Amino acid sequence: MDLAFIAAVFPKLLAGLPLTLSLAVLSLSGGAILALLLSGLRASSWLGAQFANFYVYIFRGTPLLIQIFLIYYGLAQFPALRHSLLWPLLREPYVCAVLALMLNDAAYTSEILRGGLRAVSSGAIEAAKVAGMSRPTMLRRIVLPLAFRQALPAYGAEVTSMVKATSLASVVTLMEVTGLARAEVSQSYRAIEVFLCAAVIYLVLVTLITRLVHWLEDRLSTHRSPALDRSPA
Predict the structure, then answer these.
(1) How many angstroms separate the CA atoms of 62 and 59, rounded?
(2) Residue 106 CB: number of other CB atoms within 10 A?
(3) Nearest CA to 64 among 90, 20, 97?
(4) Rounded Cα distance, 207 and 213, in Å
(5) What are the boundaries of each domain within the chain?
(6) Per-residue confidence of the chain (233 residues) as pLDDT tens digits?
(7) Nearest to 213 by CA among 155, 144, 162, 150
(8) Fewer CB atoms < 10 Å away: N or C end of the chain?
């Protein structure tokens, strides 16, 4: 282990951190929107529920790497797409990677949302109805906050998984942290030091996200009493 070499490699890999974060943020944002649409489809009709279930079945049942390959290499097989106005975007590796990550994240997030909504007790819903709340008000003030609180631990795990999954974008020539690490290994042939540096970067990111999720859980906990936090006089 050459500490001087590791100290020199770290700044090079950190240069890919903005790209890693942008991939994660865009895929999680787009995935959350699609997950809400899938939840709406499930509640709309039997046909919508079947479509949503089929979507989740496909994207959860196939490897993310294969999905990236299908989008990056497969879209070019359709002449209609190659001659469309969208092709200047769809031929970009960054757009293909974000699209694949987003579609994959939507499948997992929709299941997390479904679990959170099912965890809302019928008693809370009945109490809201007795109080005279309209359906939109009940969703905004009762159902969604409780569902979010129940789904937060699972969604936190999904966020960390998606951050680590951005490393797969390197297979379509994107130079994020893993892409830069692979390029450095091809030049220096020192895989242990280089990939160890990359692992530390991902570990720090995941640790920060995990701590943030735990802080949110504590803030949103409905079971803590302010009196319990006071030390006895």
Answers:
(1) 6
(2) 25
(3) 97
(4) 10
(5) 3-221
(6) 778 888 999 999 999 999 999 999 999 999 999 998 998 888 888 898 999 999 999 999 999 999 999 999 998 888 888 888 888 888 999 999 999 999 999 999 999 988 888 888 778 878 888 888 877 788 778 887 888 888 889 999 999 999 999 999 999 999 999 999 999 999 988 999 999 999 999 999 999 999 999 998 888 775 544 443 444 43
(7) 155
(8) C
- Closest by CA to 210, choosing from 169, 150, 161, is 161
Amino acid making up residue 76: A
Alpha carbons 56 and 87: distance in angstroms, whole number? 26
Question: Quick check: 184 and 13 in contact, CB under 8 A?
Answer: yes
8 Å CB contact between 164 and 24: no
Q: Could you give the C-alpha distances from 203 to 19, 38, 145, 209, in angstroms and in order?
A: 17, 32, 30, 10
CATH number of 3-221: 1.10.3720.10
Output Rg (C-alpha) for the chain, integer angstroms.
22
CA distance 103 to 97: 10
Structure-block tokens of residue 130: 């007795």
